[in-house]
Design brief:
The complex is a heterodimer of chains A (about 550) and B (about 475).
Chain A (H helix, E strand, L loop, with lengths): L1 H9 L7 E2 L3 E9 L5 E10 L2 E6 L9 E4 L4 E4 L1 E6 L48 H8 L3 E6 L6 E4 L1 E4 L16 E3 L17 H26 L12 H10 L5 E5 L2 H13 L4 E5 L7 H4 L4 E5 L14 H4 L5 H14 L1 H7 L5 E3 L5 H13 L4 H8 L1 H6 L17 E4 L10 E6 L2 E4 L5 H7 L8 H6 L7 E9 L2 E12 L2 E8 L2 E11 L2 E10 L2 E12 L2 E7 L5 E8 L2
Parallel strand pairs in A: 2-5, 2-6, 7-8, 11-12, 12-13, 13-14, 14-15
Antiparallel strand pairs in A: 1-18, 2-3, 3-4, 6-16, 8-10, 9-11, 16-17, 17-18, 19-20, 19-26, 20-21, 21-22, 22-23, 23-24, 24-25, 25-26
Chain B lengths: L3 H10 L2 E2 L28 E10 L5 E10 L2 E6 L9 E4 L4 E4 L1 E6 L28 H8 L2 E6 L7 E4 L1 E4 L17 E5 L2 H4 L17 H31 L13 H10 L4 E6 L2 H14 L3 E6 L7 H6 L3 E4 L17 H7 L4 E3 L10 H12 L3 H6 L3 H6 L17 E4 L10 E6 L2 E5 L6 H10 L12
Parallel strand pairs in B: 1-5, 2-5, 2-6, 7-8, 11-12, 12-13, 13-14, 14-15
Antiparallel strand pairs in B: 2-3, 3-4, 6-16, 8-10, 9-11, 16-17, 17-18
Classes of the chains: A alpha+beta (about 550), B alpha/beta (about 475).
């Protein structure tokens, strides 16, 4: 019903799922990101490029006009950590590293690939995205992704891919964007396996490769200078790929999340004067000094589990009270969610990325980062213009400006809010409708784009309670009002409730499907009273019962604050 | 909720902190505001430990003496040393102070130990994989250990470059490094390198070498390559100096593996060699002699007592276990008198842990050298302080309580070799990194339970 209404109002044929050509989006609230907000304006798109943007723009006669009736338009979001369209990893070759020097960068003999040790691997040539993956990300407002393998010491040369239905490779925005590096060793290595197998070997291998590349570059430059009698350097695709990296022409994107990983990556960057971008940085708040030494920072919102955080796996040594664990876990979780906010306060400019999360959870976690103190506008910049700059396409993407690629998102509400309701997405000026999934498909839709652990799959079925709610409790003696500020991690709900008797912690918060329960403890007339809320969430509304123990029961209504 | 840092900060402003007495514990409080932080102690500028029995190691024992620490260094030691005004005073009455214990063989604080894919991995560095949040570090502090030699494992003939660290628990990983310590490298001989205990899957090749002959061959081959590599660089340096302008030669390719071995050849990198049998120790000494370098320490060296004279003559140290033997074939001929016997023949002997657990009680391990081999008290004490420091090339900085040395100290509740001795406080650079008064021990947690009102669910008990 709703879909039909929308389509009728837009006056376009129902059959057209994707269309290119010349468009004029009128009566739009345009968030340009770089040039402020146009409360009611028009965007003209021609041949995939934004032609004009403004409040007083007359649509050209050949344009198809889409009257957006006050809907919001944002630049298409860019995710810099994606594996979309990558073939599943090819099997590692056999063989093993025998005795000999550590010389890196030499391809294994024959056709055996050395997966994870391939600086010369060109990702743009391998892309085969599944239509469902493309649509899953795009329907959330993501219009371009940077694709690189997620494991390996030298993962390859990434490609920035537009989320079009027709072809990913042909329309690649930029390739190579960067050499992608990490701390994983040779695939299938370990004892009796191939060098490098451990963190020890990986760092040595990476350093040796950089020295090899410096030497290779010097030989090439000398040879190209045309000095007669100079023997020519050997051909080596992997070393060739490293040459622009050690010459500072091509960035190295280094996957580093934990504090020590960040420091190690930055140390390598400093040693070889690389143009180094730290990707991940989920413990960036512990390594601000190191991040300030990097050329770029991409902050993942794939928050780690508290028990894996540096210093926290040994919490027992620091614990001061026996009931410390749960409370501190949640304190750590808050700190992790506040990572981006902390880095922003520290003056670090960064892009936000999914860290491999599927689109729904990606933006859900961005909201958590905002709830934890990251200014919403900074978050939007970090998902658009900052991402574009870090990917080297700041001139083409990331904001709504004339001359830029027409990657746009049309939504009912704020794209970073709880219910953006994305209605259509433009990629390269091609219009894609967002068809709201039928309820039975809603769960599955969330999985596209490479869902990961089973726990995340579960999360897709859960109500999202994170945010701020106006709560009204109605009981026999009248009404009481309160404000619930909640964060959610999987099925666990945490936060505080501001009541007329003061602000208290929310405890025992759980979300099961659309059901939510949580507890507060209030001193009522000198009595410590435990109050249990049990409700059902329906979008921005929750309703249910309140159990006040000896004081009886009540009902409550919650309205989510925008 | 107090962090340890806050507790220590509070202690720093208290006129007198008394280790080992029943002080009032900080009351448990709300924990929700607890921050994710390490207990980083404040840097005390001026500290005095008074009325303590000071076992200086280098210059005898002072029955009732004072140590003054200024800016992390020992400024004065003696029976008649005045406490300067403004000093933070640690009352050492009834306590014994020894130099911070140096463990010459440790794998604590490392995120990877063995790059076992090749038998020569001189290019890998332990300093690249240090972590500051390894629980073993804290336990080592509780055992009075202040300096560790973080070694690569023994899977390879030439393993990785070691990292000498101070146990600065709570500071970032790179702050652990012992600044100015000479670099070193791990070698290994015998069964581990030959991989005799390794299960080989069908179709999997066995790694070279399979015999002790092969181990020697690999060593000689590696150092021969290093010699050639050094000549290549020397030739380049000569060509560069004589080259016309604009015709500078391209430098040779840097090889991180051979760089490390050239440093060994040039005496700039200390060799710490895992070894058991007398024959392989003699082989290693011969290879070192042929290539002109010294083995700084033989590690484990359980048959060292058979070749103590040769080890002493080569100027090498020996770092052994007190009484740990027969856990593999090549450890069959070990005897607990090994440490004392080698010391008697003039070898500088240390007792090491090779274990996060044993590292907590190295003082007891050292005492065994007195029990079994009749080593003197001072000699036994040197085995965990001055001798390992000498083996690591840091004996000018640590290993004894002398003016000018780093204020790395362990304060015991009694004689460190007494069976019930335990560490009350551990200082590094004059900072209190461990204090049993504020450490979250099991007793302390039990005290918290008693203080808490009402039953609480205990989900986890701290070791």
């Amino acid at each position: 019903m709703r879909l039909r209404t929308l389509l009728a109002c837009l006056a376009v044929p129902v059959t057209a799922a994707a269309q290119d050509g010349t468009w004029a989006l009128t009566n739009a609230r345009i968030e340009t990101v770089t040039r402020g907000v146009i409360e009611r304006g028009t965007i003209v798109i021609r041949d995939g490029i934004i032609e004009t943007v403004g409040a007083n723009v007359t649509p050209p006669p050949d344009a198809r006009i889409v009257d957006l009736a006050g809907k919001r338009v944002f630049p298409g979001l860019i995710d810099l950590t994606s594996t979309l369209g990558l073939p599943s990893a090819p099997a590692a070759g056999g063989g093993q590293g025998g005795p000999g020097g550590p010389t890196a960068g030499q391809p294994a003999s024959g056709t055996v690939r050395n997966v994870g040790l391939e600086p010369g691997r060109v990702i743009a040539e391998e892309l085969r995205p599944a239509a469902a993956d493309v649509r899953g990300a795009r329907d959330a407002g993501i219009t371009a992704v940077l694709v690189a393998p997620s494991r390996g010491a030298f993962r390859g040369l990434s490609a920035l891919v537009p989320l079009r239905d027709d072809s990913a490779t042909r329309y690649v925005v930029r390739s190579p964007v960067a050499l992608h590096m990490g701390f994983e060793g040779a695939q299938g290595s370990g004892f009796g396996g191939r060098y490098p197998a451990t963190l020890l070997g990986v760092i040595a291998y990476e350093r040796q490769s950089m020295y090899d590349a410096q030497h290779h570059a010097a030989q090439q430059e000398r040879y190209r200078a045309g000095v007669r009698g100079v023997s020519r350097p050997s051909y080596d695709a992997n070393l060739d790929a490293l040459v622009p990296v050690v010459r500072g022409a091509l960035p190295a994107f280094f996957d580093a999340n934990r504090e020590n990983e960040i420091r190690r990556a930055v140390n390598i960057g400093d040693e070889f004067d690389l143009k180094l971008t730290v990707v991940g940085a989920t413990e960036g708040f512990r390594a601000i000094d190191a991040l300030k030494r990097a050329s770029g920072v991409v902050v993942s919102v794939d928050f780690p589990r508290p028990t894996t955080v540096t210093g926290w796996s040994y919490r027992s040594t620091q614990r001061r009270a026996l009931n410390d664990s749960a409370a501190t876990d949640s304190a750590v979780r808050r700190m992790l969610e506040a990572n981006a906010a902390t880095l922003n306060t520290a003056g670090i400019r960064f892009a936000l990325s999914s860290g491999g999360l599927r689109a729904g959870e990606f933006l859900g976690n961005v909201r958590k980062a905002i709830a934890a103190g990251l200014p919403r506008d900074v978050a939007l910049q970090a998902l658009t213009v900052r991402s574009a700059e870090i990917a080297g396409v700041g001139a083409q993407l990331g904001s709504i400006e004339p001359g830029k690629i027409a990657n746009l998102v049309v939504a009912e509400r704020d794209i970073l809010g709880d219910s953006a309701n994305v209605r259509m997405v433009f990629v390269d000026g091609i219009r894609y409708e967002v068809i709201p999934p039928a309820p039975s498909e809603a769960r599955r839709a969330g999985r596209t784009g490479g869902g990961r652990a089973g726990e995340r799959e579960e999360a897709g079925e859960m109500a999202r309670v994170a945010g701020t709610w106006d709560i009204t409790v109605t009981h026999g003696e009248g009404e009481n009002r309160a404000t619930l500020t909640a964060t959610q991690s999987g099925s666990t709900l945490e936060g505080s409730m501001a009541t007329e008797l003061g602000t208290v912690q929310v405890t025992d918060g759980r979300v099961t499907g659309q059901r939510v329960t949580f507890t507060i403890t209030l001193p009522i007339s000198g009595q410590t009273t435990v109050i249990v809320f049990r409700g059902t969430v329906d979008g921005n509304r929750m309703t249910g019962d309140v159990d006040m123990g000896a004081m009886g029961s009540a009902t409550f209504i919650g309205e989510r604050k925008p | 909720m107090r962090t340890i840092a806050m507790v220590l900060a509070a202690a720093a402003f208290t006129a007198t902190a008394t280790p080992g007495t029943a002080q009032q514990r900080p009351a448990p409080r709300d924990t929700t505001t607890k921050r994710l932080s390490y207990p980083v102690p404040p840097a005390a500028r001026l500290v005095a430990i008074t009325n303590a029995t000071i076992m200086t190691v280098a210059k005898g024992t002072i029955p009732k003496g004072t140590i003054v620490i200024r800016d992390g260094k020992i400024a004065a030691v003696g029976a008649d040393v005045a406490v300067p005004a403004g000093a933070q005073v640690i009352d050492g009455n009834g306590k014994f102070v020894i130099p911070g214990i140096v463990d010459a063989h440790s794998h604590s604080a490392a995120e990877a130990i063995n790059e076992g894919t090749q038998s020569i991995t001189a290019q890998v560095r332990m300093e690249d994989v240090l972590r500051q949040d390894a629980l073993g570090l804290y336990r080592e502090l509780a055992g009075g250990v202040t300096t560790l030699n973080i070694l690569h494992g023994s899977a390879n003939t030439i393993g990785g470059q070691n990292a000498t660290v101070k146990v600065r628990w709570g500071l970032p990983a790179d702050s652990l490094l012992f600044e100015g310590a000479p670099p070193g490298i791990k070698f290994a001989l015998g069964e581990n390198v030959r991989q005799t205990n390794r299960t080989v899957l069908p179709g999997q090749e066995r790694r070279y070498p399979r015999t002790r002959m092969g181990v020697e061959e690999l060593l000689r081959d590696a150092f021969t390559r290093a010699q050639e590599y050094r000549r290549e660089w020397q030739a380049y340096e000569r060509a560069r100096k004589s080259a016309k302008k604009g015709q500078a030669p391209v430098p040779p390719k840097r090889d991180l593996q051979l760089d490390a071995l050239v440093e060994v050849l040039e005496g700039k990198r200390l060799v710490h060699c895992h070894s058991y049998r007398a024959d392989e120790i003699l082989m290693m000494l011969q290879v070192a002699k042929d290539f002109g370098f010294r083995v700084a320490s033989f590690q484990h060296v359980l048959e060292g007592y058979k070749v103590a004279d040769e080890i002493a003559a080569a100027g090498s140290g020996a770092s052994t276990f007190a009484d740990n033997w027969a856990y593999k074939l090549e450890a069959w001929d070990a005897i607990p008198h090994n440490a004392a016997l080698m010391a008697e023949r003039g070898v500088r002997v240390s007792i090491n842990s090779d274990s996060d657990e044993r590292a907590r009680r190295l003082y007891q391990e050292a005492a065994k050298a007195m029990h079994y081999g009749g080593a003197s008290e001072e000699e036994a004490l040197k085995m965990i302080t001055l001798h390992p420091a000498w083996q690591l090339g840091i004996d000018k900085r640590v290993g004894s309580i002398e003016v000018g040395k780093d204020a790395d100290l362990a304060i015991f509740n009694g004689h460190p070799f007494a069976p019930a001795a335990r560490v009350e406080m551990t200082l590094i650079d004059g900072r209190v990194f461990f204090d049993r008064n504020t450490a979250p021990t099991l007793e302390y947690l039990m005290e918290l339970i008693r203080q808490q009102q009402g039953p609480r669910q205990v989900t986890e008990v701290v070791p």
